[in-house]
Amino acid sequence: MTKEIRVGIVGTKFMGRSHSNAFIDVPHFFEVPFTPVLQAACGRNAADLAAFARQFGWKSQETSWEKLVEREDIDLVDISTSNLTHCAIAVAAAKHGKHILCEKPLAMNSTEARQMLDAVQEAGVRHMVAFNYRRVPAIVQAKKLIEEGKIGKIYHINAVYLQDWIVDPNFPMAWRFDAKEAGSGAHGDLNAHIIDLARYLVGEFEAVSGDMTTFVKERPTPDGKGKVQVTVDDATSFLARFTNGAVGTFTATRFATGRKNFLRLEVFGSKGAFNFNLERLNELEYFSLNDPVVEQGFRQVLVTESKHPYVNAWWPPGHIIGWEHTFIHEVRDLLIAIDQKAEVYPNFYDGLRCQQVLDAVALSAAEKRWVTIPAEG
Amino acid sequence: MTKEIRVGIVGTKFMGRSHSNAFIDVPHFFEVPFTPVLQAACGRNAADLAAFARQFGWKSQETSWEKLVEREDIDLVDISTSNLTHCAIAVAAAKHGKHILCEKPLAMNSTEARQMLDAVQEAGVRHMVAFNYRRVPAIVQAKKLIEEGKIGKIYHINAVYLQDWIVDPNFPMAWRFDAKEAGSGAHGDLNAHIIDLARYLVGEFEAVSGDMTTFVKERPTPDGKGKVQVTVDDATSFLARFTNGAVGTFTATRFATGRKNFLRLEVFGSKGAFNFNLERLNELEYFSLNDPVVEQGFRQVLVTESKHPYVNAWWPPGHIIGWEHTFIHEVRDLLIAIDQKAEVYPNFYDGLRCQQVLDAVALSAAEKRWVTIPAEG
Amino acid sequence: MTKEIRVGIVGTKFMGRSHSNAFIDVPHFFEVPFTPVLQAACGRNAADLAAFARQFGWKSQETSWEKLVEREDIDLVDISTSNLTHCAIAVAAAKHGKHILCEKPLAMNSTEARQMLDAVQEAGVRHMVAFNYRRVPAIVQAKKLIEEGKIGKIYHINAVYLQDWIVDPNFPMAWRFDAKEAGSGAHGDLNAHIIDLARYLVGEFEAVSGDMTTFVKERPTPDGKGKVQVTVDDATSFLARFTNGAVGTFTATRFATGRKNFLRLEVFGSKGAFNFNLERLNELEYFSLNDPVVEQGFRQVLVTESKHPYVNAWWPPGHIIGWEHTFIHEVRDLLIAIDQKAEVYPNFYDGLRCQQVLDAVALSAAEKRWVTIPAEG
Amino acid sequence: MTKEIRVGIVGTKFMGRSHSNAFIDVPHFFEVPFTPVLQAACGRNAADLAAFARQFGWKSQETSWEKLVEREDIDLVDISTSNLTHCAIAVAAAKHGKHILCEKPLAMNSTEARQMLDAVQEAGVRHMVAFNYRRVPAIVQAKKLIEEGKIGKIYHINAVYLQDWIVDPNFPMAWRFDAKEAGSGAHGDLNAHIIDLARYLVGEFEAVSGDMTTFVKERPTPDGKGKVQVTVDDATSFLARFTNGAVGTFTATRFATGRKNFLRLEVFGSKGAFNFNLERLNELEYFSLNDPVVEQGFRQVLVTESKHPYVNAWWPPGHIIGWEHTFIHEVRDLLIAIDQKAEVYPNFYDGLRCQQVLDAVALSAAEKRWVTIPAEG
Lengths: 377, 377, 377, 377
Hints:
The structure is a homotetramer.
Chain A: E1 3-10, H1 14-29, E2 34-42, H2 46-56, E3 60-62, H3 65-70, E4 76-79, H4 86-95, E5 99-102, H5 110-123, E6 127-129, H6 137-147, E7 154-162, H7 179-182, H8 186-201, E8 205-213, E9 218-220, E10 227-229, E11 235-242, E12 247-253, E13 262-269, E14 272-277, E15 283-288, E16 298-302, H9 325-340, H10 348-367, E17 371-372
Parallel strand pairs in A: 1-2, 1-4, 2-3, 4-5, 5-6, 7-12
Antiparallel strand pairs in A: 7-13, 8-11, 8-17, 9-10, 11-12, 13-14, 14-15, 15-16
Helix pairs in contact in A: 1-9, 4-5, 5-10, 8-10
């Protein structure tokens, strides 16, 4: 743990905070090949940036990401901005030979994602997309069940990501509701996560049929004096077929009154099944047809045993971890990959593949037809 | 309770049994205008019929439904057969002036359903489709919440009906897997229920985009010597838009390993939300935005209070009822409607509307496009 | 099923209703050696009695239980009265050679219970106490797990029976709150059930330390004009030691706001554990140390498979049964026992043993010390 | 946030790790008057100590706690050792004018606890016992419900703390199973927590009746060659009466197969009730009699709203926190108290009161009688 890796972060909000915490905490719990040094933080608003840097101990500040990615004292660029700027920052960072951790969704569209992938591959740097839910111990445990054949051939995945923070029609307009800035609404924000998890757990998508809805079509301007049109989706659902024969339903919404961060996966296979809910992320419900019929039932596995993925670094059984721990696991795996010059997943290729599904759903919704996903990214 | 109503039932299996029980038990718990008399039972297999009649006390037996519907000592015909024969029996029964309780789905297709509706309307008899889940106290309570404005404008309904009884690919062929006999598989059997509940709770469907799948394409013949092609769906999912602006996802499957009779509804509106699960049918989860923010949460309402629908007839709070009680409630409401010469719901019009949605989903799946539901039945 | 058994019931209220239903329904679902004939019903209030008899089809009526137990056309006496009268009726019925099904708790105290046991043993009739929760399929399944060694040596049983129907201090006085009539309050009513289940599942009690509380010491008279002293417990908790080394905690209360009929058992052994909740009586939570560590968890077993106890008589998997079904199972087993001249459990000996524990807890609470249970009844 | 507070910690194991993390993370999320400086760590084993200090960045090391508490560059002593040494360290630290955060239970017995309280009061330093569950947001929210009168007069508290880590009889002997080192087993370790929570939420204990059990009386020596007697309890249950009329049952055990860190509170009052489970610590179940009867039910409140206690410092709604966050909250409150020279709770007086209940239960179990708790500490 003598080596250091110098991190430059772009973005000082929600994701900037959770990533900062991860860089700080990771060496306290995991044996990592590098100690992260919080070298430089970058944000557009100088006052916000200063507060952020002071709070987490970032050693220097930049208000231009262009300068940050050029700095020679930066090894790893963390892109925690809104997705509008991901592509430009990533391409520039790659050109300067920086390893990159980029927030999800990778880009505004597949074209950008492809460009980003090309850039990092050309530069030969490590690249990772921050689909942090792949680092929930229960999700990794579910993946193990699949790999061990305990779920069998997968028939169904039903996935929802339900939030309710804009149910109030007077919730004011923001950049997140403007297609030019945000690309899409619930779709890119939430479906991106469950699409990535479906690819991780089930396999590649073959075709989709989607439906995008904007329930509240106008919202008050932030000053409350007028109304502006909402140009992104409030909710997007789609049907999916996978190349391995599985089928799925997906719903992302910001209008599921009472649900805050309710990402639920239900996967059913020929030999077993599992359920997962992000609001109870320390638990995995697992059903096995191998149990005697009269004793079969969904097991409520508390994924806090030292033998469970990542858990050994934490606390004794039953002492649960929180949402932010997924980022610590993510950074741990990235640091190891950088050290070993090995691929780490989900990488920008995964980000591109996810983007292709997102784009296909949007196209499908626009044209009211099924859309096929390209066989390769 | 001095009047009698003489019932003739066609069908001696699962539904014949649950309906028989309902006719017997209803006067023991509810004040009903008629005491049902189990006048005649009809089945094709004489031995099975005799056993069935003896077990439930049916006074006479017929092996021809044509004879049964003609009998002058029958007031009400209960059609508990497979849906292949619903239309013929119902049309004949109507012609003979019998009131009709018909199992779901009403028919093999919309054309038949329309014919049945015409017949009962012409005959001026009472007609009801046995969508018994409209008589679960928790469902009626949910309907009340909607009517009282406590859910507000409905945005989402996510409905699944999950079973797993044919996950085993060696489960042998049966008439239920033959399109000619059964019409469809999970779709007509299971989606019919959740489509009817969606119409009851949310409103009329506008358009659908569906996907039908047969995971196990061949099954062993009952004698185990050969294989036969399965011609119905194992699973059907669809996206839906409602005329009032709500959107929905629906999944029916017989391949959800670990789920036995898992009908789950999740309804989200502008003021509240509710969840329901048939395997815990005495419970309703209800969320209200009217509660103080720090006290908001889904309330696990145990729908066993005397003020809850139908419950006063039963037991004290917390003493749960079972699945079969829904039929008792259904028969109770039908008897009152017959006495009062009033409409009872769901009637054959509802059955037709459900059929139109079922047909539209099937067409949509076949042609890979959205299909619009007729504005009226 | 050609033989008949003629039943005479004493008591027309809650228990009278649920027992009537059981006698009517049992032959519709189970192969029983006798068809119950509802021969005579007995109650003190002639109007109530007439309504009750009409509703369930009792063929004749008696307002004196002394006459009922003498009638030659009665084979089985069902005692569904309050426990004040159990002893007198049972002793008289036994003298007249009637088989007896008696509601719980068996008696007002151990002395009475002993007298009743002597009477039925002398008469050589069948005797059963209506601890109906022994006939919940999930409870019988739990018993099987124990018998098969899957729970191992039992260390803990934590049992609660929580209700809340008299939390309101203005809930008026009734005979149930008068020690002379009722014997005790929550203790005899609710602890009786969980004591019996503990004996069934864990074994014999060795010693107890109890605490009885009356939170609301006076209640309004029914006419609302005065106040009367409550002379029974509102809540009773006790610690227990079993002869096999297990320990337990027990709580019965009518002051658990929000809990309606919440009987929860938690049993932990050296190899496994199970949990049960009467409000979800179709479910059993089962944990096994035999599962691989990373897959261990409480299995939510839906006890509705045809291989589960009693279930084959009912509906397909996932179609739940209700609280009243436990009485149907009870009557089924009693009829078989009568036919086979075999013992049926829980019998009056079990009723006596339960009474001894109830009495010991009451004595312990009064004298503030541990009280030992007699080694035999 | 310019001021610093220099921390010296004694203990490098489980608690040392979670406290270290809290000191590091607290300024990243909360506005605190001091930035903790990890000045010195103390442990008996030099190699373990070095690894611990390196991992969390402790600036210096001591192998003698006597030296640590003397150091002038230490402001706050954190006692994270086993309870055998709490008293000596705390008394010495107080004499040197250090503020003290001490792990629970405060001491080996009430005498020690009294001595510790005297020492800190005489020294005029801040003192806090690390009953960290008082800093679970859901617990603080429950306390608010009580203070706002929403629970009403409390009738019942049923509390359990269930673990299973020594169910295996071959789990080897350790200091924790030796009364001389550990004082007691499950009792001091687990009951201490739920006694403190009961005092926080319900009020002062009046009297107890307890039962202590050792299921596995001998365990293998660590080298596996012999057997040693276990001299502490495996499980301890007790009945309690509170001075305000509430009653309670308490169980702590290490033999609850399948339960890992299952601390469950059930509190029932005249106007409402709540339930809490540490394994789902982001949730609070709350029942209110103020809701309309047909809408009453336990609300599953996800305690992750910015208006919930402590939550505003963390993430958006639905993004759960983990077990260790309770220590961060604890340290935050301690730092503020030190700055404001204000009392912080639970302090050593609370630690003493908890100890008195623990002692009373042990005495009660030994003498098989009820034991009264002193009216004041």
